[in-house]
Amino acid sequence: MEQRGVGVEIVEVGPRDGLQNEKRVLPTSVKVDYVSRAVAAGLRRIEVAAFARPDRVPQMADAEEVLRSVPRSPGVRYVALVLNGRGLDRALALEAARPDEINYVVVASDEFSRRNQGMSTAASLAAFRDVAARARDAGFFVTLTVAAAFGCPFSGPVSPDFVRTVVEDAGPLDEICLADTIGVGVPVQVSELAAAVRPVAGGVPLRAHFHNTRNTGYANAIAAVSEGFVALDASLGGIGGCPFAPAATGNIATEDLAYLLNSSALKTGVDVTAAAAVGTWIGGQLDLDAVPAQLGRAGDFTR
């Protein structure tokens, strides 16, 4: 691995992607506490909310209140998921409390896109281009997440060529995130997708989002670092999943990923012990018997 000694950014997605698949809906005050604890553990880029329909994703119904209440600190950037133009309007209406970044999801599968967003991938891309232009004009950093890039729960394998077409047709943006939404990916796919999208990405940084459904998430994370991805999504405790994809279990765990990267001389800025404590804490708030993360049980190892 040629990345030793450099930094890899961990994007904490627990307060959004982690909580949205949990049955218990947490009060705003607990969500804000969750974010504050993540910041104290060294995380500096945190997805805190989604502007989604409350009837479909009740866990995110208080998106505005969360963004008004999270602590604002120098160097800490907050991300919100936006699904359409109405979501962007909600973000803009927050004015001083608005997020720093917008994350928009386009699904690399027509079947999944229709079930999840009620439109084809091409239609979703057209909507993204409009939202991205408005968001960038308003000063937001814009990420396009290509969901189901590694496989679709309804139609099966997804071609890297199709993912390349999605990226090529996306238009101007600031970051591309390739997501294994249902946790079917393996390291060779990471390499194949990187090779497919990089020629059409125009130098835009690559980020990856892995779920550990089939216990390949951490291997995929290392493969992504080796391929030059500069940021990796993870959730404290390894909580989460996708409410619209069958059997999509949690994200790779922030504390476990930070241990892996820190111990490989890849700087993350995350305090593993503090992160593990937050992972255990959020599991308690959600009434989980145990969280998927291992570090809360095993502890750090001093080298």
From TrEMBL:
Family annotation (InterPro entries): Aldolase_TIM (IPR013785), HMGL (IPR043594), PYR_CT (IPR000891)
GO terms of molecular function: lyase activity
Organism: Actinoplanes subglobosus
Family under the similarity heading: Belongs to the HMG-CoA lyase family.
Entry keywords, A to Z: Lyase, Metal-binding
Protein name as it appears in the record: Hydroxymethylglutaryl-CoA lyase
Domain Pyruvate carboxyltransferase as annotated: residue spans: 8-276
Pfam families named among the record's database cross-references: HMGL-like
PANTHER family: HYDROXYMETHYLGLUTARYL-COA LYASE
NCBIfam families: PRK05692.1
Domain of life: Bacteria
PROSITE patterns: PYR_CT
